[in-house]
Amino acid sequence: MANKLDVYLITLSKRAGTFKDVICKKCELTEQSLSSTKIFNAFYKLFLEKIGKDVFCVASKNMGITILKGKGQKTNNIVTAHSSNQLIEGYIDGGSYNSIRKIARLTNISQRQIVQKSDIITDKFYFYLYLPLDSKIAVFMVQTKEYASLRRLIPSFWEKLLKTGEHRNCQVNLYYPQWLRAEFLQGANLHSLSFENENISQVQTEHDLDIESHSYKVKVIITPDEDNPITDLASTIEKIGSKFALKIGQTTYMLSSFAKKKGAIKNEEHKKILPFKIDEEDKIHPVIVLDEVLSSNDGEFNRSDLKSFCDDILTRIKPEIYAIEH
Known about the structure:
By secondary structure, this protein is α+β, with helices and mostly antiparallel strands. The chain is 25% helix and 37% strand. The protein has helices at 19-26, 36-52, 75-78, 154-161, 178-186, 233-243, 303-325; strands spanning 3-12, 56-58, 63-66, 79-82, 87-97, 101-104, 112-115, 120-130, 137-145, 170-174, 188-204, 211-222, 245-248, 251-254, 260-267, 272-277, 288-289, 296-297, 300-301. The strands form 5 sheets. Strands 1, 2, 3, 4, 5, 8, 9, 10 and 17 form a 9-stranded antiparallel sheet that branches. Strands 12-11-15-16 form a 4-stranded antiparallel sheet. A two-stranded antiparallel sheet has the order 6-7. A hairpin with a 7-residue loop joins β6 (101-104) and β7 (112-115). The longest helix has 23 residues, at 303-325. The protein starts with a strand and ends with a helix.
């Protein structure tokens, strides 16, 4: 799973109004007859100003994002606005700073360079932002790599960018498409169940005068021999929990009484195993793995392929997201 795609919802507070209201206030747009294109382009300009000139730092996370241009490159070719569709997509560079490190050549470790606290080590990430002006919900998708991600920075970045005055205008949360979960569960089977508990056993001492207590952490793992479709997951878990027990000393403990109950499901077609907490099966969250749907050249994907893929994701999740809003 080298490259994944995270999907976030940026949701404005009731007080903030719509994105049009926030942008007009943020960019000090006072004309009453401004077109949607002009308002969106004002936001695009603000976005580029915040990350295109310098590094936008989130000090609490020791992370920053920016746009690193090569010689002769233009910023609007790296990050592009599609105003008619209220989209911004392209590449951002982000990573951590405030840490002293050393860089050395594999072929000659004597050739070293010190990375100072004021230096930032970045990776390039593709992103895709759908920001409908008349809505309170935007969709932000961003690439995550096996060795690097912007997850710790993203909520703070959007909160700061959309802040007006003293008010934090939005919440930023990971979103797991319902259709993706449904597709995964449709072909999945129960892979294993585990029950964990801390049990106390009391025994008399050799002189029968005192009782000693001993604490044991007990873990029971159950692996079904046959396929158990996820449609029967709840009943399967209930049967196992109520029919299997563990006797410790003179006390019998039903597995259903254990404090920690976890499971894993497996989809043979997708070749994936996903863990979940029992009683929280609704939190089974498949991930979007870019390497499985797009071809790459040494880990680099074609930008048009990434945009087309995100276009398709957006089309499929729009009914889920904007049905909630209306």
